[in-house]
Structure formats: C-alpha cells, structure tokens
Write a structure and sequence with these properties.
Layout: H1 2-17, H2 19-27, H3 40-50, E1 55-61, E2 64-73, H4 76-86, E3 96-98, E4 104-114, E5 119-128, H5 133-136, E6 139-142, H6 145-151, E7 155-160, H7 165-176, E8 180-183, E9 186-194, H8 197-206, H9 210-214, E10 217-218, E11 224-229, E12 235-241, E13 253-257, H10 259-266, E14 275-280, H11 301-305
Parallel strand pairs: 2-7, 9-14
Antiparallel strand pairs: 1-2, 3-4, 4-5, 5-6, 6-7, 8-9, 10-11, 11-12, 12-13, 13-14
Length: about 300
C-alpha cells in the first residue's frame, strides 16, 4: 500500500513539473505489475520439515504402495489441530467443504498461494470413517504434486496412537467380550452378537492395526493373513480374516487365530480362543402406528348453504 501511495505521489509531482508529458501518460497509462504474494506452498513444506515428530513410513495394499508422513494422534479433532499448525498464517481462513463421497466422512480443502507453481495449490484433509479410524488412521492429507515432490511422500496420515499390534488385539478382544457367548459346539469359538452393522464394523476393524494391514498377505483361498507383533517387533502369531464370500449364513465377519496367537492371548486373558464371529442382531420390525380417526372438517359457509 505504501509503495502504491509513493508511486501516486511521484506521479503527481512529475505532472506538476512536466504537465504536457503527464497528459500523454494519462492517455497511455502504465499499470504496475502486482507484487507476487508469499509462496505459501513452500512455507507449508518448510513447516512440515521443521516438525521432527512427523516420520516417513510406507503403506502397501494389494501390491501397491506409497511413502507417507505419519503422526500418531488420539482423535480426528487432534489430527485437524496438528494439521492447522502446518498451514501458513491466513491459510486456515480459506477452508471450504468438499463432497466426501463414499470413502470419507468429511473433506476440507484449503488454498495455498504458490507463485512458483503459477497459481494455487489445493490441499485437502479427509476424515476417515469411524469404523476405519483405528486401522487406516483418523485423517489423510492429500498433497498436490509439487508438495509431494518437495517432501518425497504422497500423503500425510494421522494414525491412531497404538502401543503395538498385540496390545491393540487384546484391547479389541476385551471390548468385544461383553457381546460374546461361547459356541456350544466349539468352546474355542466366540460368537459376538452386536446390535447394529455400525458396531459390527467398528469391532471387526478394531483388531487390525496399520502395520498389520500394510504387511497383510492374501492366500489362495482369498483369506487375509496378518502377523501380530508386540512392542519389540516379535511375532505373536497370525490373525486370519475370512473372505466375505465364504462366511456362514448370518455371519457378517470372522477372524481365525492361529495356535501361537491363541497361546499369547491366554497369557493375559483367562484363556485363549481360536475364532470369533461377528453377527448383527435382527432388528425388531417396528409395529405399525395405530390409525387415528381423521378430524372432522368444520363446515364452511359454502357447505352450510347447501
């Protein structure tokens, strides 16, 4: 603003000294080029690099993978608060909602001024569905290509804070026990009956950590084999996810526990188990509402006349 005012005062003084030439300048005005704004994309990259808490990790699924920056948090709200710390001053005010589609619960976009990129960079933070949060993270940050190149990663992912796979597995199993009964034909089989699909989905995904998902192997029967490790990286056995096409009728999900994992859980719980099935309880059909007699319509002047 001060530079614009200086230019204006300079033009007025020049006109006073050389009136004629100033008239010619008015006929053909020269518009000063606007100064480029700050490179907010570069500032964002520097903010990320300055925060040593973010670590590079690798995520793979079905033969495809990508490097990403990881920060462990306790909730989506904490993830959003940490992400906003990375944004240069003023960028948070550019927030706007984006259609989340079927994969996410909420998507928020932000605009970063990037003059070196001849325009604007759009960066989005995406809230994962609650049922997936513990296994895939609370939020994913989608980065534009120039920022990906500068950071050498494809995403920033705010993961759930977990001590290790085994601790997570035991917690998920303990949380499921109130819903469980033993199969009368197989005492090693837990039948977990939940009130809704939402509860069932959360329970199924709660057993799987990000590390387990990243290193999962699919066998010839399309079963997902996942290794469960402790805090020191030692193997505690394997969790086997059954393909949905092979589930018994009425079962929404099923995990098998190999002998090693069964023995490990018995070290903490009263006993070990070899299988858990998730069943969604049948919802009672709501009774039809009783019909109420229609209120009599008061006679109008016209009907009264008849």
């Amino acid at each position: 603003m001060k530079k614009n005012l200086s230019w204006m005062f300079g033009a007025i003084l020049s006109c006073a000294a050389m009136f004629t030439s100033c008239n010619n300048a008015i006929d053909n005005p020269v518009t000063p080029m606007p100064e480029p704004g700050p490179d907010e994309a570069a500032m964002f990259v520097q903010n990320v690099k300055n925060d040593s808490r973010y670590t590079i990790d690798y995520l793979s699924a079905q033969g495809e993978g990508a490097y990403y920056l990881r920060l462990d948090v306790g909730s989506y709200e904490e993830a959003m608060a940490e992400f906003l710390k990375l944004l240069p001053e003023g960028v948070a005010a550019t927030a706007y909602d984006v259609d989340p589609g079927k994969s996410f619960d909420k998507v928020t976009g932000f605009k970063l001024n990037a003059p070196n990129n001849d325009g604007e960079d759009i960066i989005t933070i995406r809230k994962t569905k609650d049922a997936l949060a513990l296994s895939t993270g609370y939020a994913w940050v989608y980065l534009p290509s120039d920022i990906q190149e500068a950071l050498n990663v494809s995403f920033i992912i705010y993961m759930a804070s977990l001590e290790d796979d085994m601790t997570n597995f035991l917690k998920a199993l303990t949380d499921a026990l109130p819903y469980c009964t033993l199969d009368p034909e197989d005492p090693d089989h837990l039948i977990c009956t939940v009130p809704s699909r939402e509860v069932g989905s959360k329970m199924m995904f709660a057993f799987v950590s990000t590390t387990m998902m990243s290193n999962a192997v699919v066998n010839e029967n399309k079963q997902v084999i996942m290794e469960v490790k402790d805090a020191k990286g030692n193997s505690c056995g394997h969790l086997i996810g059954i393909n949905k096409n092979d589930l018994p009728e009425g079962v929404s999900g099923m995990y098998l526990f190999d002998d090693e994992l069964k023995a490990k859980m018995a070290e903490t719980l009263p006993r070990g188990f070899s299988k858990i099935s998730i069943i969604v309880a049948e919802q009672p059909t709501p009774e039809p509402a009783e019909e109420t007699p229609a209120e009599e319509t008061p006679a109008t002047e016209e009907t009264s006349a008849e």
